[in-house]
Specification:
By secondary structure, the chain is an alpha+beta fold. It is built from 27 helices and 30 strands. 35% of the residues lie in helices and 17% in strands. A hairpin with a 5-residue loop joins strand 4 and strand 5. Helix 17 packs antiparallel against helix 18 and helix 20 runs antiparallel to helix 21.
C-alpha cells in the first residue's frame, strides 16, 4: 500500500502540484506569454573582468560543487513552465548532473578530471567567461559578475559598504523567497505566510518551541554583539546594515520590474495582474531569527536528558540499580575505546565526563513524565489527525539529542601527499532542497576576500569556503551545551522556586491562522502556540521527583546568543586576520555553535572544536536532569544575559598538523563526550577513516585519490561493510541447510565480496547491482536487532533505548532524523551494539563491550538460530514490502526508494539522483603557495 513520503523537518512547503490540474494547457501558455515581458531583470553582458586573480594562491587546484544550481529564484512564468513542461530557469540545475555523476564515475577519476564533477573555485572570472555584469542599484563602488558556467556571483567592491551591499543584492537575486521563508520560520510565523500544510505547522512549532523570542529579545542579541566586541562588533553591524540595504534594493527593483519570485503570487502576497501586494523589507532582527533556525538545526549539541533518565530507570527496573546502571552505561558508550576519533594521537580533552559521585541529580519518578503541550485552541485544518501527528513528530525532533549531522571532512597533511602540500576534501551535509539552503558566492572588498557557501540570508560573509591561501570547513560535533533542569513548582503549576523565591513563569504565546492559496490548498485553520519560560529556559516536560512536582526546562548556552558567531565568520573572511593555523583556530573560537572546524593551506592543516561549553558545577552528570538550585548552576551563570563561564580554548579539542583528520559526526577525541548516542565500534566515520588511513600508509595522496576515498565511502552500506561479515560468520558456523536461507547467505556473501556498495549496474540504469542482497539486508536489519536484543533487555528497556537511538538509518528509511530521500544515512543506528554483541558471542576480543551477551542468550548456537530464522523471514519479503511506495516512488522500486530528491521549498522541481552519502556543498583543495 502506498504511503506518504516521510518528510524531513525542513520539507515544509508544498510544491504547487495543483497547477496542472486547474489550468488547461492553452490558458497556461497564454498566462506565461502575458508574463514574459517583465520576466528578466536588467543586466549587461560583461566585457573585461580580471582573469586569474593575483591574490589567489591555489594554483587552479581549488574546486567546489553545490547542487542543484546557484539560481534559486523563479518568476511566476518560470514556475509555470517548470510545473507544466519541466523546463528550468538558467543555472537552477546545472550543478546537479556533475554532482550526481560522481557516484558512478569516481573509480576512473584523475586530477585532470576533477572539474568534470566539480567547479573551478579560483578567484575571479576570465573575461571570456563573463555572463553578466551588474552595478546593483546603480552603485559605482561594487560590481556583481556572474560566470557562464554556473552563474555564481563574484562580488567586487571598492568600499566595504558597497561590497556588502552587493552581497545582499546577490543573495536576494538568488534566494529571496527562501530567505523570506526562513525569517518566518525563525519567528514561528510560517503558516500565515506560506500556508497551513501540516508540515509547515510542524516546522514553525519545532523552532518556536526552542527559541520563542520577542522582537526585543532579537534586538538585544544585536545590541550585545555590537557592544561586547569592540571595533569588530561595530564593523559587523555596519556590514549587516549594508547587506540589508542590498537585499531591500533588490526587493524594490524586482517588485517594480515584476521579476520577483513567483511564489509570492502563488501564496497570495502579490497579484500577478495588478502587481498589488507587498514584499516586506528585511530588517536586522529578521537575520537573527534566520540564524536561530540554522544554529538549532546544525550547531546546538545536547538535550535528551529526560529520555536518558527514562531509559536509565527502565534499566534499573529490569536489573536493579547497580547492574541496571552498568547495562545502561554500556549502551550509552560515552567513551568507547573502539570509537573512530577525529583526533587519534591519544590526546585527551575531558568534557561532560561521568563523575565519580553524581550531585544534584533529579531523576523523575517512574511513569510521571509528561511532555509540555505547545499547541492549543486548534481550529479547522489544524485539528486534523495528520496535523496533530505531525506536531508530535516535530516535538520529538526538537527534544531529541539525535540531531541532524553536518559532515564530512577528509584532510591529509603534506607529509603524506604526492606534492608535499596538504589536500582536503570537505563540506557540510545539509540535505537537498530546491532552492538549496546554501548559496555560493565570491566576495572581494576591503577586509574581505573569500569564496564559498553561506546559508541564504546570512551571506554577508562566506561561512564555509576558501580564502586567498587557505580553506576551511565544518562538521557538526554534538558536544553537550544544553542542560535540563528540574525546577520545583510552588503555589501552582506556573510558579517555581528560583534560588528559594517563588517566581512566576513567563508565558509567551502567539496565534497563527491561515487560508487556502494556490500553492497550498490546506483548508483554513488556526492555533495558539504557548511556551512557559523560566530563568532556566523553556519548559519541556512536567513530572514528579521524589513526589515533588517539577517542570523540566532546557538551558542552552547559545540561547539568546545565536548572533554571537558573526564575529568568528567575519574573521574567517578577513585576509589580514587568518594567516596561519593558529589565527584560524583563534577565529573559530568566536563561534558558539557546536562544530568541528578544519583548515588547510599550502603547508599546514589544523582542527578546532567550537562552542560555548559551560563549566558545570562539580559532580554534575550532564547526561541527566539536575535540580535548579544555585549549587548546581553553571559556574558564573547570569540568567539575565544567559552567560556563564565557559571552558578555555585550550580545553577544546584542537590540533595542528596531525597526519590526517577525518570527521563524519563521529567522536571527536578521547574523553570528550558528545550528546548523541551511537559513538561506538561501528560508525559511519569508520567508512572514511579506514580509507584515508590506507591512503596515508601508502603515501603519495592526491586530490583525486582523496576524492575517490570519499566517493567510495559515499556509496557504501555501513552495515554491509562493517557488521554483515561477522553476522555471516555466525550463520556459517554450521552448514546452512535451509534452501531459502542458503540462497540468501550466498547473495549476501557475494555482495560483501563486491564491496557492500549501493550502486547502479551502470550509469542511469536505476537498478542496483546486488539488488537482492541489498533488499535482504534492508529487511533483515530491523528483524535481527529486535530478535537479538528485546528478549534479553525486555520490551520496556528495549523501547526506551530505541528512543535514545533509532535502530537503523538506511538510505530508504523514513524514520530516521533525516527522513527519506535525504542522502545522509547511517549516522544513527544500532550497528555498534550488534557488532560488539556478535563479536562477543563469537569469542572475539571486544574492548568496551556490552554489559551482557544478548544474541541467543549469549550462545553461538542460540544466536545462530535467531539469525537464521530472521534471515529466512527477511528473504521472503518482497521488494514492495521492503520499499513501500510514496508520493515519489512506486512500491518496490528499490533504487527510487534510496534516491536523493531535492525537496521543494519553492515552485521549482528537479529530477532525482542515485543515492550518495556525501556533503551537499563540497570543496576539493590543494594550495600551492602562501603569502
Amino acid at each position: 500500500m502506498s504511503r506518504r513520503t516521510p518528510r524531513t523537518i525542513l520539507d515544509r512547503l508544498r510544491t504547487p502540484r495543483r497547477l496542472p490540474k486547474f489550468l488547461k494547457a492553452t490558458s497556461v501558455c497564454l498566462l506565461i506569454a502575458g508574463l514574459l515581458t517583465p520576466l528578466t531583470q536588467a543586466s549587461a553582458a560583461g566585457t573585461a573582468v580580471t582573469a586569474a586573480a593575483a591574490n589567489d594562491y591555489c594554483g587552479s587546484q581549488c574546486s567546489d560543487i553545490l547542487p542543484p544550481g546557484e539560481n534559486g529564484n523563479a518568476t511566476l512564468a518560470q514556475i509555470l513552465l517548470n510545473q507544466v513542461f519541466g523546463s528550468q530557469p538558467a543555472h537552477a540545475e546545472d550543478q546537479l548532473g556533475p554532482y550526481a555523476n560522481l557516484a558512478s564515475g569516481y573509480s576512473a577519476l584523475t586530477d585532470a578530471k576533477i572539474n568534470d564533477f566539480f567547479n573551478d573555485s579560483s578567484f575571479g572570472v576570465a573575461a571570456d567567461q563573463v555572463e553578466s555584469t551588474t552595478k546593483p542599484a546603480g552603485r559605482t563602488d561594487v560590481t556583481i559578475v556572474r560566470d557562464k558556467k554556473t552563474g555564481v556571483p563574484h562580488i567586487t567592491g571598492t568600499t566595504r559598504y558597497g561590497t556588502e551591499f552587493g552581497a545582499g543584492y546577490a543573495a536576494a537575486q538568488d534566494r529571496l523567497w527562501l530567505m523570506d521563508v526562513f525569517r518566518h520560520v525563525g519567528r514561528g510565523k510560517l503558516t500565515p505566510f506560506a500556508g497551513g500544510d501540516p508540515s509547515n505547522q510542524a516546522l514553525e512549532q519545532q523552532f518556536w518551541r526552542t527559541a520563542p523570542y520577542s522582537e526585543a529579545e532579537l534586538q538585544a542579541q544585536i545590541d550585545s554583539v555590537t557592544t561586547n566586541n569592540g571595533a569588530r562588533g561595530q564593523q559587523a553591524l555596519a556590514d549587516v546594515n549594508a547587506y540589508l540595504a542590498g537585499v531591500n534594493a533588490y526587493i524594490d527593483a524586482s517588485d517594480s520590474g515584476r521579476y520577483f519570485p513567483g511564489e509570492y503570487v502563488l501564496t497570495g502576497h502579490k497579484d500577478s495582474i495588478t502587481n498589488a501586494g507587498t514584499i516586506e523589507h528585511f530588517k536586522l532582527t529578521d537575520l537573527v531569527a534566520l540564524a536561530s533556525v540554522i544554529g538549532a538545526l546544525f550547531g546546538s549539541g545536547g538535550g535528551g536528558e529526560v529520555n536518558n533518565a527514562i531509559s536509565l530507570l527502565a534499566a534499573q527496573s529490569k536489573y536493579g540499580v547497580t547492574e541496571g546502571t552498568k547495562v545502561w552505561e554500556s549502551f550509552r558508550e560515552r567513551n568507547d575505546p573502539e570509537a573512530a576519533l577525529t583526533l587519534h594521537d591519544g590526546q585527551s580533552f575531558p568534557y561532560a565526563t561521568k563523575p565519580a559521585v553524581a550531585q544534584g541529580q533529579a531523576l523523575p519518578d517512574a511513569g510521571t513524565v509528561a511532555q509540555e503541550p505547545l499547541v492549543y485552541d486548534r481550529t479547522g485544518s489544524a485539528a486534523t489527525t495528520t496535523a496533530t501527528s505531525t506536531s508530535a513528530a516535530a516535538a520529538g525532533t526538537a527534544l531529541s539529542s539525535a540531531r541532524k549531522g553536518m559532515s564530512n571532512a577528509l584532510v591529509v597533511s603534506g607529509d603524506h601527499t604526492a606534492s608535499g602540500h596538504p589536500v582536503a576534501v570537505f563540506g557540510p551535509q545539509t540535505g537537498y532542497f530546491a532552492p538549496q539552503l546554501l548559496m555560493l558566492q565570491e566576495i572581494q572588498g576591503p577586509g574581505l576576500s573569500a569564496r564559498g557557501a553561506s546559508f541564504a540570508g546570512l551571506s554577508f560573509y562566506v561561512e564555509l569556503g576558501r580564502g586567498q591561501d587557505y580553506s576551511w570547513s565544518a562538521t557538526t560535533s554534538g558536544q553537550d551545551i544544553i542542560d535540563t533542569y528540574a525546577v520545583e513548582l510552588c503555589q501552582d503549576d506556573y510558579h517555581y522556586l528560583y534560588h528559594g523565591t517563588c517566581t512566576a513563569m513567563d508565558k509567551i504565546e502567539q496565534t497563527n491562522a491561515w487560508v487556502p492559496t494556490v500553492a497550498d490548498g490546506t483548508a483554513a485553520g488556526s492555533y495558539r502556540m504557548q511556551v512557559y519560560r523560566t530563568k532556566y529556559g523553556p519548559v519541556e516536560y512536567r513530572a514528579t521527583v521524589g513526589g515533588k512536582k517539577v517542570a523540566y526546562t532546557s538551558l542552552r548556552s547559545s540561547y539568546m546568543h545565536e548572533a554571537d558567531s558573526i564575529i568568528g565568520f567575519q574573521m574567517l573572511n578577513d585576509p589580514d586576520y587568518v594567516k596561519s593555523p593558529q589565527t584560524f583556530q583563534a577565529a573559530t573560537q568566536h563561534i558558539n555553535y557546536t562544530f568541528n572546524w578544519f583548515y588547510a593551506d599550502s603547508t599546514h592543516t589544523a582542527y578546532y572544536n567550537s562552542g560555548d561549553n559551560p563549566v558545570r558545577a562539580t559532580g554534575i552528570d550532564a547526561e541527566f536532569p539536575v535540580w535548579a538550585q544555585a549549587a548546581y548552576d553553571w559556574q558564573g551563570w547570569n540568567p539575565a544575559t544567559n552567560t556563564a563561564t565557559y571552558t578555555a580554548a585550550s580545553a577544546h579539542p584542537n590540533s595542528i598538523d596531525q597526519d590526517y583528520y577525518i570527521s563524519w559526526n563521529n567522536k571527536v577525541a578521547k574523553d570528550y563526550t558528545t550528546a548523541p548516542w551511537g559513538n561506538g565500534s561501528v560508525h559511519r566515520g569508520n567508512l572514511i577513516d579506514d580509507r584515508v588511513k590506507r591512503l596515508v600508509t601508502a603515501g603519495g595522496v592526491t586530490r583525486s585519490s582523496l576524492v575517490k576515498a570519499m566517493a567510495d565511502a559515499s556509496v557504501a552500506d555501513l552495515r554491509g561493510e562493517d557488521v554483515l561479515p561477522d553476522l555471516l560468520k555466525v550463520v556459517n558456523s554450521q552448514p546452512v541447510t535451509d534452501t531459502a536461507a542458503a540462497a540468501a547467505v550466498s547473495k549476501l556473501s557475494a555482495w560483501v565480496t563486491a564491496g557492500s556498495k549501493r550502486t547502479e549496474t551502470s550509469l542511469g540504469s536505476k537498478t542496483y547491482a546486488n539488488a537482492d542482497a541489498i533488499r535482504i539486508l534492508d529487511a533483515w536489519w530491523p528483524l535481527l536487532v529486535k530478535a537479538e536484543f528485546e528478549p534479553g533487555l525486555g520490551t520496556d528497556l528495549y523501547t526506551a533505548i530505541t528512543s535514545n537511538l533509532p535502530i537503523d538509518e538506511a538510505p530508504s528509511a523514513g524514520h530516521g532524523p533525516t527522513g527519506s530521500h535525504a542522502g545522509s544515512s547511517f549516522q544513527y543506528g544500532w550497528w555498534s551494539y550488534v557488532d560488539k554483541d556478535i563479536r562477543a558471542v563469537l569469542g572475539e576480543s571486544v574492548q568496551g563491550g556490552l554489559a551482557q551477551k544478548y544474541c541467543g542468550g549469549g550462545t553461538l548456537t542460540g544466536c545462530r538460530n535467531i539469525l537464521i530464522s530472521t534471515l529466512e523471514e527477511a528473504a521472503g519479503k518482497t521488494a514492495a514490502q521492503v520499499y513501500p511506495g510514496d508520493d515519489s516512488c512506486a512500491a518496490g522500486n528499490q533504487w527510487c526508494a534510496d534516491s536523493v530528491i531535492h525537496r521543494t521549498l519553492g515552485g521549482i522541481k528537479h529530477y532525482g539522483i542515485s543515492w550518495q552519502n556525501r556533503p551537499t556543498f563540497q570543496q576539493v583543495v590543494e594550495f600551492t603557495s602562501h603569502r
